[in-house]
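pls design
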């Protein structure tokens, strides 16, 4: 049975990947395959996290913080197992 790939939300302005890939949790070593939309959102979330943790970029942009929260919500609703393995 082929699973339907969810589309990215309209507000998403990040990179849209053509293919999925396997991602590894840097702390646990757990691996998870993400389809193209999940991988696009995952990379956006991780990129935001890096910006937030690195104070050389200055104050955190309110819109980026809102989009980060929306991205985490989208990812959690789209693939709860991957969210728990990679982001929780």
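designed seq:
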């Amino acid at each position: 049975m082929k699973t339907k790939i969810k589309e990215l939300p309209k507000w998403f302005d990040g990179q849209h990947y053509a293919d999925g890939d396997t991602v590894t949790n840097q702390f646990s070593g757990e691996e998870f395959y993400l389809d193209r939309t999940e991988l696009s959102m995952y990379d956006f979330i991780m990129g935001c996290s890096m910006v937030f943790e690195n104070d050389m970029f200055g104050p955190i942009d309110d819109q980026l913080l809102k989009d980060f929260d929306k991205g985490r919500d989208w990812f959690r609703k789209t693939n709860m197992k991957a969210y728990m393995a990679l982001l929780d």
